[in-house]
UniProtKB/TrEMBL annotation, chain A:
<dbReference type="Pfam" id="PF13806">
    <property type="entry name" value="Rieske_2"/>
</dbReference>
<dbReference type="GO" id="GO:0016705">
    <property type="term" value="F:oxidoreductase activity, acting on paired donors, with incorporation or reduction of molecular oxygen"/>
</dbReference>
<dbReference type="GO" id="GO:0051537">
    <property type="term" value="F:2 iron, 2 sulfur cluster binding"/>
</dbReference>
<dbReference type="GO" id="GO:0004497">
    <property type="term" value="F:monooxygenase activity"/>
</dbReference>
<dbReference type="InterPro" id="IPR017941">
    <property type="entry name" value="Rieske_2Fe-2S"/>
</dbReference>
<dbReference type="GO" id="GO:0008942">
    <property type="term" value="F:nitrite reductase [NAD(P)H] activity"/>
</dbReference>
<keyword id="KW-0560">Oxidoreductase</keyword>
<keyword id="KW-0001">2Fe-2S</keyword>
<protein>
    <submittedName>
        <fullName>Nitrite reductase (NADH) small subunit</fullName>
    </submittedName>
</protein>
TrEMBL record, chain B:
<dbReference type="Pfam" id="PF04324">
    <property type="entry name" value="Fer2_BFD"/>
</dbReference>
<comment type="function">
    <text>Catalyzes the reduction of sulfite to sulfide, a step in the biosynthesis of sulfur-containing amino acids and cofactors.</text>
</comment>
<dbReference type="Pfam" id="PF07992">
    <property type="entry name" value="Pyr_redox_2"/>
</dbReference>
<dbReference type="InterPro" id="IPR023753">
    <property type="entry name" value="FAD/NAD-binding_dom"/>
</dbReference>
<keyword id="KW-0285">Flavoprotein</keyword>
<keyword id="KW-0408">Iron</keyword>
<keyword id="KW-0274">FAD</keyword>
<dbReference type="GO" id="GO:0051537">
    <property type="term" value="F:2 iron, 2 sulfur cluster binding"/>
</dbReference>
<dbReference type="Pfam" id="PF03460">
    <property type="entry name" value="NIR_SIR_ferr"/>
</dbReference>
Length: 121, 840
């Protein structure tokens, strides 16, 4: 299926997300990766960009990009839009359940454009 | 073989007996025959005065009282028992039927006492006991109102029932006079000081009180009546109502040879047994070990005791009754408890009579001043629950200090003084000990936590303030801060935003908060900004503040898809619009369901489909229904007088008007409303945040109702108001709620936790005691004038539209994780097996 995402044949290659300005400040967008993985890409109020898996591990729904971005004790997080569990934007660790983590993605900023790729093994 | 139980009397207590026997008698051993004097099944006689609100007897009906579907109960209406032959175990009825019994329960209740005043039986003289009595009074009042000037009525008797009757007359637009022989009103419950204050407060409500005088005679004068009082006063009136107390109806028992107590009533032992085998007496006609009770609760306890004996065969006793009373008469709070009249030997009285504040408080204590025996409260009964639990126990402080408003124990008796076994929540029998252990051992840190954990405060809600005090006394600091980013409460933030004109979250948090915000403060501030009219909720930086559903103007479901609910004001919809919804749902393959709010929900839309669905809906004349918002949801309605043969007003028209008025208004939590076209209340308005019930003369407004996990019956805020007044009151109510409630606090909990409760709310909303009503109304006019459909606004804004895609880098691609299967001919989500959560 043509997902509209540029296929490079290399799953570890960078995928273009969007211009950094297209990510709402203190908000997120979802990006589709070749192979079907989904990244939730966030920008915190200081302008730092983070990327986590878009899949909420508690529900299995691909919704994390639609969560509210905030901070607690200077830890930036996104709260799942389904049941509000918070995930550290830097590591993917769940702040409300230390045993749960979502995977994070590598982020590359190139000339105002955001790219992501899955972390190597 | 089944046995026959004959119940003589079908009042509230008789009915309770039948219910209790039926509940326990699973095998159907008892065949029950109920002999009822009145022609209608048992009804709520305690609520008789509310009949005046609607003149609808159905509204007083007790559930299941007609026993229509129960083959074990034979209800013989309008056929009173006339004789009992206890030897042959046979009851004869007025119609001549002979009914054998194996067990007989007398529940004949009481009759109004009419003093033998000359003229007491003239036309225009009434008693106050049954629905028929009220109908007769109503007819006479109507005839009187047709005459010249203000009609008036005299109530003979200034006790509890007399004041109820006075209220009923006032509600019928008569000017009431109350004549009481004792030197004070409510002589049985309260003392002279309390009675004096009560008389003053009642007089302010257009009731003229004449105490310490008898009614010497009543004489006709033209179409009216003149009552000559013992003190020489002549009162002319259109009608006279006798409510000078009640007497047990023990005549049937007397005639069949049962023993009668010294002061009347069928003498029974603590198991409610008369001296003759298999004959019992319960309720107001019974004198348990010589004492009669004129309240329904002891009657119910007697009914339960007899039912238990009949069904289990084991002895069960009447446990005695707490005759503490707390009630509101003509809007005045009155309470008495324990030995209110200081009849205990050596008892001392401590009184604080504050004529300015309009409160009277008396404590009765033991001769050494250490033990609480009873008391009287008038004008302010806030301490009733605490004090009642302390009766018979050591006082925590000097009695005068307890009563003093600014004394050592400011705020009344400290909760520390309550013993652990004191019942804090009497609805659910939760003791202070259970609550403190929930705090200390269970880790409860809030009123909400205590409610969930112990059930306290989930009944009538009157103990909720006490729960807060208990938390304080356990050392739990109940913070009102919104979250870690804002030390202010929601209502404080509201005032800050309103006062400063700050229009963005970033400015507010920079000036009044810290950090960058979270999923608690962002939606809370977004709601405040929206309530204050700062533009579309997806404008600029507002968008990322919005909670899940508001963010996409639709309701996110478990698989990340959305449901869409167009507004259907009042639940009224044309066939064309119904067809349009059907066609749109079919085109986008949406699961459809009728909601509880009388509209249609369409499920399974993906983010990118939402604008296309809205386009179709808007073109068909629909707009957003705000099912996703903490905002007005629907105003439900019954069909009203347009069609319904019982309706007395156009409930659909009013519901549509209200829904269109308040649509889109953001509030601390969702708002639900309803309008019923008559007292049958088919729209269930009393379970809504604001509910309107039509009366013959206008509308009754109820507020603070709630369904859900903690249902709450709404409180009556105003009666018989015209449409204009109704809308003005709702404007004020809703805006006052928006300004002062906590985040995610429904009106029910807001009202329960409000200092001063309903009375305070009424003084603010109806009497404008804070002088803010003009402001509240202006804010509402602003909202109404500036309303726009949120969906349509997105459709005409390319920037906002661009956000409705599943993937920023592949706008046309559907989310590959979403899939559906078919169930009952419609699509439903394939449950996402929760993926293997990576455990670190």
């Amino acid at each position: 299926m043509n997902c509209g995402v540029e296929q490079t044949g290399d799953p570890t290659a960078w995928t273009r997300v969007c211009a950094v300005d297209a990510i709402p400040e203190a908000g997120g967008v979802a990006a589709l990766l070749p192979g079907g993985a989904q990244a939730a890409v966030f920008r915190d109020p200081s302008g730092t960009v983070y990327a986590l898996s878009n899949i909420d591990p508690f529900s299995g729904a691909a919704v994390l990009a639609r969560g509210i971005v905030g901070d607690t004790d200077e830890v930036p997080f996104v709260a799942s839009p389904l049941h509000k569990e918070r995930f550290d934007l830097r590591t993917g660790e769940c702040l409300d359940d230390a045993s749960v983590r979502v995977s994070s993605f590598d982020v590359l900023l190139d000339d105002g454009v955001v790219f992501v790729r899955e972390l190597g093994p | 073989m089944s046995r026959t139980l004959v119940v003589v009397g079908n009042g509230m207590v008789g009915h309770r007996l039948v219910e209790a026997v039926r509940a326990a008698d699973v095998a159907g051993d008892w065949h029950i025959v109920v002999l009822a004097e009145e022609a209608r099944p048992a009804y709520d006689r305690v609520g008789l005065s509310s009949y005046v609100d609607s003149w609808d007897a159905e509204a007083l009906a007790l559930p299941g009282a007609d026993h229509a579907t129960d083959e074990h109960v034979e209800l013989q209406l309008g056929d009173a028992a006339s004789a009992v032959d206890t030897g042959r175990k046979l009851v004869t009825t007025a119609s001549g039927t002979a009914q054998p019994y194996d067990a007989l329960v007398l529940a004949t209740g009481s009759r109004p006492f009419v003093p033998p005043v000359p003229g007491h039986d003239l036309p225009g003289c009434f008693v106050y006991r049954t629905i028929d009595d009220l109908d007769a009074i109503h007819a006479a009042a109507r005839r009187a109102r047709d005459g010249r000037g203000r009609a008036s009525g005299i109530v003979v008797g200034g006790g509890l029932l007399g004041l109820e009757a006075a209220k009923a007359l006032r509600d019928m637009d008569l000017s009431p006079h109350v004549v009481e022989m004792a030197p004070r009103l409510m002589p049985l419950q309260i003392d002279d000081g309390g009675g004096a204050l009560l008389a003053r407060l009642v007089a302010e409500l257009d009731v003229t009180v004449h105490t310490a005088t008898s009614t010497a005679e009543i004489v006709p004068e033209g179409h009216r009546l003149v009552a000559r009082l013992g003190n020489g006063t002549d009162l002319d009136a259109d009608l006279v109502v006798f409510s000078a107390g009640i007497r047990p109806r023990d005549d049937l028992a007397r005639s069949c040879g049962l023993e009668i107590a010294e002061r009347g009533g069928v003498l029974v032992d603590e198991q409610c047994r008369t001296g003759i085998a298999d004959v019992y007496a319960i309720g107001e006609c019974a004198a348990v070990q010589g004492t009669t009770y004129g309240l329904v609760a002891p009657g119910y306890a007697m009914a339960e005791a007899v039912a238990a004996q009949l069904t289990s065969g084991h002895p069960a006793t009447f446990p005695g009754a707490d005759t503490s009373t707390k009630l509101k008469l003509l809007g005045v709070d009155v309470a008495s408890f324990g030995d209110a009249h200081a009849q205990t030997e050596g008892a001392l009285e401590v009184v604080v009579n504050d004529a300015v504040a309009g409160t009277y408080k008396k404590l009765v204590v033991s001769d050494d001043g250490t033990t609480l025996l009873g008391g009287v409260l008038v004008g302010d009964t806030g301490e009733f629950n605490t004090l009642r639990t302390l009766v018979g126990r050591a006082l925590p402080d000097d009695p005068a200090a307890i009563l003093s408003p600014d004394g050592a124990a400011a705020g009344g008796v400290g909760v520390d003084a309550l013993p652990d076994e004191a019942q804090v929540c009497s609805c659910n029998a939760v003791t202070k000990g259970a609550i403190t252990s929930a705090v200390h051992e269970g880790g409860c840190e809030s009123v909400a936590g205590l409610k969930a954990c112990t059930g306290a405060g989930t009944g009538c809600g009157s103990c909720v303030p006490l729960l807060g005090k208990l938390l304080d006394s356990c050392g739990v600091e109940q913070s009102t801060a919104v979250c870690e980013h804002f030390p202010q409460s929601r209502s404080e933030l509201f005032e800050i935003v309103a006062g400063t004109g700050i229009a963005t979250f970033s400015e507010l948090i920079a000036r009044y908060g810290s950090g960058s915000g979270c999923a608690i403060c962002k939606p809370a501030v977004a709601s405040i900004l929206a309530s204050l009219g700062t533009g579309h909720i997806l404008d600029g930086e507002h968008a990322t503040l919005q909670d899940t559903n508001d963010r996409h103007l639709a309701n996110m479901q478990r698989n990340g898809t959305y449901s869409v609910v167009p507004r259907v004001p009042g639940g009224e919809i044309t066939p064309e619009k119904l067809i349009a919804i059907g066609e749109i749902a079919r085109e986008f393959d949406l699961y459809t369901k009728i909601t509880g709010g009388q509209r249609i929900d369409m499920f399974g839309a993906t983010v990118d489909e939402l604008p296309r669905i809205w386009r179709r809906l808007v073109d068909a004349g629909f707009e957003s229904g705000h099912a996703y918002g903490k905002a007005l949801r629907t105003v439900k309605s019954c069909v009203g007088w347009t069609w319904c043969r019982y309706g007395v007003q156009d409930s659909v028209g009013m519901a549509v008007e209200l829904e269109l008025r308040y649509r889109g208004l953001r509030s601390p939590h969702k708002l639900k409303a309803a309008v019923s076209g008559c007292a049958r209340e088919c729209a269930e308005a009393q379970s809504k945040d604001f509910g309107v019930i039509a009366t013959e003369r206008g509308w009754n407004l109820y507020v603070g109702g709630n369904g859900g996990a903690l249902p709450r019956h709404a409180d009556l805020l105003a009666s018989d108001v015209d449409s204009e007044t109704l809308i003005r009151l709702i404007d004020r109510f809703v805006m006052f709620y928006i300004r002062t409630a906590d985040r995610l606090q429904r009106t029910a909990r807001w009202l329960e936790e409000m200092d001063g409760g309903l009375e305070h709310l009424r003084s603010v909303i109806v009497d404008d005691s804070l002088g803010i009503c003009a402001e509240l109304e202006a804010a509402m006019h602003e909202h109404v004038a500036n309303y726009v459909d949120e969906w349509n606004a997105v459709l005409s804004d390319p920037d906002k539209l661009a956000r409705f895609t599943s993937f920023v880098n592949a706008p046309e691609a559907p989310d590959p994780t979403i899939s559906f299967r078919t169930e009952r001919a419609q699509k439903v989500p394939v449950l996402l097996g929760t993926p293997e959560v990576s455990r670190s």
